[in-house]
Specification:
5 helices, 36% helix
Length: 137
C-alpha cells in the first residue's frame, strides 16, 4: 500500500502538505520486480519515476555498475525532464517494490496542483544537482 507517510520520506515530495500528497496518490501505481528483473533498460523509453518502497536495485550503464539504490531513493527521473531514452539500466537485486508516477500524471499535477508541481520540479532539480556534485568529487 502506498500512503502519505511512506512518500514523505522522499525528497521529491519535500515541502508538500500531506493533503497535497493525498491528492497525488491516486495518480500513482505500484510495481514489483523479482531478483534479476530489469525495471528500466538503457536506451529504451521510460515514462515514469520509480520510488523504491522496499528492496535494492543496481544502476548500470554500458554494462558497468554505477551505484546501488535502496528504500527511499528514486530512479527514472531523468527521462521526466528530457524525454529521452533511459540513460541507464536498473535491475532488481532482490525482491523490489516500487511506487511509480508517469509523465502523464506529472502533467495532470501541473494542471490540477500548481503549487505541488512547482515544489516537485524544484526538488527534482535539487536532487539532480546533488548527484552531479557527488560525481564531480
Amino acid at each position: 500500500m502506498i500512503d502519505v507517510a511512506s512518500l514523505q520520506k522522499y525528497s521529491l515530495f519535500g515541502g508538500l502538505l500531506p493533503e497535497e500528497i493525498e491528492r497525488i496518490l491516486p495518480l500513482m501505481e505500484r510495481a514489483t520486480f523479482a531478483a534479476g528483473e530489469t525495471a528500466i533498460r538503457e536506451g529504451e523509453p521510460n515514462d515514469r519515476i520509480h520510488f523504491i518502497l522496499e528492496g535494492r536495485a543496481a544502476v548500470s550503464r554500458r554494462g558497468t555498475r554505477l551505484v546501488e539504490l535502496g528504500e527511499g531513493e528514486i530512479f527514472g527521473e531523468m527521462e521526466l525532464l528530457d524525454v529521452m531514452p533511459s540513460a541507464a539500466t536498473v535491475t532488481a537485486l532482490g525482491e523490489l517494490s516500487v511506487a511509480t508516477i508517469s509523465n502523464r500524471a506529472i502533467h495532470d499535477i501541473f494542471h490540477q496542483e500548481g503549487r505541488a508541481f512547482a515544489l516537485i520540479m524544484m526538488n527534482l532539480a535539487r536532487d539532480l544537482s546533488r548527484r552531479l556534485r557527488r560525481m564531480d568529487c
